[in-house]
Amino acid sequence: xxxxxxxxxxxxxxxxxxxxxxxxxxxxxxxxxxxxxxxxxxxxxxxxxxxxxxxxxxxxxxxxxxxxxxxxxxxxxxxxxxxxxxxxxxxxxxxxxxxxxxxxxxxxxxxxxxxxxxxxxxxxxxxxxxxxxxxxxxxxxxxxx
Length: 145
Hints:
Blueprint: E1 4-12, E2 16-24, E3 30-39, E4 54-63, E5 68-74, E6 82-84, E7 98-100, E8 102-104, E9 113-115, H1 117-127, E10 133-140
Parallel strand pairs: 1-10
Antiparallel strand pairs: 1-2, 2-3, 3-7, 4-5, 4-10, 5-6, 8-9
């Protein structure tokens, strides 16, 4: 069995997508929650679009770019290297997902940024400790891709 990660999108435009992220244990109990940040929907184009709504396998793998183990989202159509990693702004993401614990416009660009991403990502990894595989389900409000 694998733990479940659920991203539910609640806001989106061409640049930015905001999600609720919940990790569930093997018994289906929520053990971690955070705010997810992705790029906006741009027809699943590599490096500039959020990940399409759907179900995916997620695997813990070493990232040479980041120099540590990260959770990578597998099977995204036409895409590779989609990961969960720390970031504060939508433009710091190239098709990946960042997690934080609060929203604020920290750079005055009229977009809500996630705060405490590094600490929140450590909590995400702690919630999945002992596993190397998980299942990801991405859903969205009506009209959100």
